[in-house]
Amino acid sequence: MTQPELPLFCGHDSDAPFIWRDGEVLSRRRFWAQAQALAAELPEAGAAINLCEDRYHFLLSFVALLLRGQINLLPPDRAKHTLQGLVEQYPHSYCLVDQAQPELPGLRQWVMQIPSEALPQGGPIRLAATQPVATVFTSGSTGHSTPQHKCWGELYHGAQRNRQALGLAQGASLLATVPAQHMYGLETSVLLPLVAELVVASARPFFPADVQRALQALPTPRYLISTPLHLRSCLQSELRWPSMAGLVSATASLDAALAEALEARFDCPLHEIYGSSETGAIATRRRAAEDVWRLHPGLRLDRVEDGWSVAGGHLSAPRLLSDRLELSGEGEFQLLGRHEDLIKIAGKRASLSDLNHQLQAIAGVEDGVFVAPEQAGDGGRLSALVVAPTLDRAAILAALGERIDAAFLPRPLYRVASLPRNATGKLPRKVLSAFIRSLKESVRGQ
Amino acid sequence: MAELSALEQEVAQLIIDALNLEDVAVADIEPEAPLFRDGLGLDSIDALELALAISRQYGFQLRSDDENNAQIFSSLRALSAHIDQHRAQ
Q1: Interval A368-426: pLDDT, tens
Q2: Best interface-test mutation with A: which of B21, B23, B29, B82 has the largest number of A CBs within 10 A?
Q3: What CATH architecture is B6-86?
Q4: CA A116 vs CA A25, A39, A102, A221: distances in Å
Q5: By CA distance, what is A412's nearest residue in B?
Q6: Which of A41, A387, B66, B77 has the fewest beta carbons closer than 10 A?
Q7: Domains, chain A, ordered by start
Q8: ipTM for the predicted complex
């Protein structure tokens, strides 16, 4: 049987818009010519760590790597120890960067330059559905990340289902606040323009005023692809927003009141995506109107030993889910939350027991514990109680910063004489919460 | 300890309140020390929270392309100076 092949790019000879960059629109034809020229310039390697932050650079290099049969390695962050770990795993790889990064000495860097366009155009290219194209790394609390290998068929079909599930009109404009290296950002801001005829903005705005300005520069219909963290800050900024066709949110569940307020402020529907680095997007819901998630067509959920797995649809094999859920109808489910030990902050996952282990392993720390925020979801940070008579706050944070991702650094960090451990050495949640409340009151009382 | 101006004290308190840094006192914040990475060790989530608190208290929005953002957030003193220049009168 011949392998099914799928297009790498749609519209290689079309003058239709592909990307907005600095107020200028670039056509699909021009992008395709540039990507082919770039492919000819890349060094020999089996894989490259794609660190491009400019979305146009990322798109060009993503495609150029595929044309050369090189894997895109997409790290969860750009911390030095993360990248060094990757280079150890992939010794023949190099880093693709927007500009030379002097703070990353010892790493082989290849600085992205947009090639001149005076090159002959190639025809359309198709890739085998099974061709490996990217490796996404799930963020762990310790910097040890697990690779998730993505083949072209999975990304291609995932993008088509995403477009349908979100009801995105072909030719509509997308603005994303999420990085292209994250699975959610890859599926939306990279795959949708490549294979589903959406037009993306090169910008990755940060502050609400940046988001507002970048949206105003795009033609209608336009969509904002973002996270609860950014959407909440846009809502609270009290800026005036241009007319929108839709908002899309992922990485953490939105609460219904926030979703309603966002729909009212932006005067458009807000769709949430549920997925993971392992699975990509697998379900959507309109939070302001429903709390059940609808599985994307073709997927099914199966009960496995201590949870659920998802299979079918765009997936080449069944994948485990890290959330607990309950089926509530044909292709519909409700999320019941994570396994107790798992926490998620700013789209990054960690295990509390692992974080505690990292804290307790610091020289000078006699005892310590991380405490999850009372309210799960977006925005909340961990706090920590630490017994370390010889270390000050800054020293503890500096030592932690070398061991764990910055998103998990505690706010606040209380230095205490001892932890309220019970007779069996455990720290029941209730006791911990009461202990922290008393600490807060004593701080205020000073 | 270095002397803080009235505005610097106010901004230091704003940072502590906006970011739940209950374990830090105004007097602990070195005016010239970096707010991010070392020093207070803030990150991008904190930058969003802080931008919001600043827009509420001082009536203007931070932008990435305004100036060098790294400069604005480089220390309590630099942030206070930026606020002083841009706040709504």
Answers
A1: 999 887 765 445 788 899 999 999 988 998 899 888 888 888 888 899 998 888 877 77
A2: B23
A3: Orthogonal Bundle (1.10)
A4: 17, 13, 26, 31
A5: B21
A6: A41
A7: 5-338 (3.40.50.12780), 342-445 (3.30.300.30)
A8: 0.84
